Amino acid sequence: MNSLAWTTDLEAARAGDRPALERVLARSRQDLRRYAEHHCVINDVEDAVQESLFTASRRMMDLRQLECFASWLFRIVKRECNRLKRAARTFLHEPITDDIAEVCQVEHRGLARDLAAALESLPAHYREIVLLRDLEGLDINELSQRLGLTREATKARLHRARSLAREYLSS
Description:
With 171 residues, the protein is mainly alpha-helical. It has 2 domains: 3-85, RNA polymerase sigma factor, region 2, helix turn helix motif (Rna Polymerase Sigma Factor, Chain: A, Orthogonal Bundle), CATH 1.10.1740; 95-170, Orthogonal Bundle (Arc Repressor Mutant, subunit A). It is 77% helix and 0% strand. The chain is elongated and about 65 Å long. The model is unreliable at 96-108 (pLDDT under 50).
C-alpha cells in the first residue's frame, strides 16, 4: 500500500469508516506483534496485540495528528504489555494465605484448583521454592540459606518456578 492510500485510509478510519479502520488495523498488526515481542512476556504477546487493536479501534477518533499514528499505536501496546506484566507480578508475588479454607471459598474454588494443579506440575525443587517464598514468606536471604544456594541462584530458581507456573496457568 502506498503512502497516499495509507493516509487516505487513516483519515477515513478516524472519520469512522469501518472498512478503512479494518485495513489500517490489519496492516498494523504485524508491526505491533513484533514490537510486543520485545516488550511483553512471550505468553502475553497476542493478548497485548488484540487488546491494543481493540483500544485503537475505539479511540481512533481521539488521534489528533495522523503522522503520530504509529507511535500512538506502539505506546498503546507498550502500555498493555506493562499492564499484563504488573498483573502477573501482582498475582504471583502476593503471599498465599495460610488458611486453606479461606482460599477455597465458592468464588475462588476454580482458582485454588488451578493454582494447586500448577504447583503440582512443577518439579519438586521449583515447587519447594515457591511454597517457601509465597506460603512461608521467606525472603531471598532466608531461601538461600535454607536451600544452600547463592542469592543469584535462588532468584533464578524462583523466577523459573514462577515462569513455569505462569505458563501452566496460561495454557
